[in-house]
Amino acid sequence: MYLSFREKAIVYGIILGDGYLQATGEKNARLRLEHGIKQKDYLIWKVKQLPSLFLGRPKFLKRVHPITKMTYSYVRHQSNSTPFLGKLRKVFYPDGVKIIPPNLKKFLNHPLVLAVWYMDDGYYSRKPDDRTSYLYLGKVSRQEAETAKTALKDRFALETSVVDKKDKGMALRFFAKDSKRLGEIIGKYILPLFSYKLFDPVTTCS
Q1: CATH number of the domain at 104-197, out of 3.10.28.10, 3.40.720.10, 3.40.50.720, 1.10.10.10?
Q2: pTM above 0.70, yes or no
Q3: pLDDT, tens digit, for every residue of 15-40?
Q4: Dihedral sign from CA coordinates of 170, 176, 180, 185
Q5: CA distances to 113, 127, 133, 197 from 201, in Å
Q6: The listed CATH number (3.10.28.10, 3.40.30.10, 3.20.20.80, 3.40.50.720) that belongs to domain 5-92
Q7: Strand 161-164 vs strand 122-124: parallel, antiparallel, or unpaired?
Q8: For 66, which DSSP code?
Q9: Spatial separation of the C-alpha atoms in residues 54 and 170, rounded to whole Å
């Protein structure tokens, strides 16, 4: 299977973000996408960018929250199983649990990777006394968060601080200056659906 540089960048961003790599054998894995029904267009966009990986149509499903007992609608799509994804699973899930790998900088090889990651897990606070951005990393160790911090600084000259968001896990915080720079770096790759996550309105992709 051949994936272009752009397609690989999107895959890397998805894996860092909300995507899940599921083992399908000793050497292969598949990529599972899930989004709430309000973000179905975003999932469809991802699928359309990766036509050699995703076939068929997404499934529209419902689940009951175990605590609130409320019913949630969501959309799911799973990719083909490939050795390429199997190799990535060994990097990002070495013991079956997702990590931020020590060689993260290798995968942050284009702003599009960061843009997809941020669309998945980024947040911008528009409070007048805040105006900072966050990139949520999930339940990772502080050392892994520091790895992400260093990789963003080395690749994109972005300064961040590591924040423990307790139940939400670790996050990287971009103060106002670097929130603005983040928008300048990834703004043209951000879908209009997520323009609210940027420091200032910019021209986003179509």
Answers
A1: 3.10.28.10
A2: yes
A3: 999 999 999 999 999 999 999 999 99
A4: negative
A5: 20, 15, 14, 9
A6: 3.10.28.10
A7: unpaired
A8: T
A9: 31
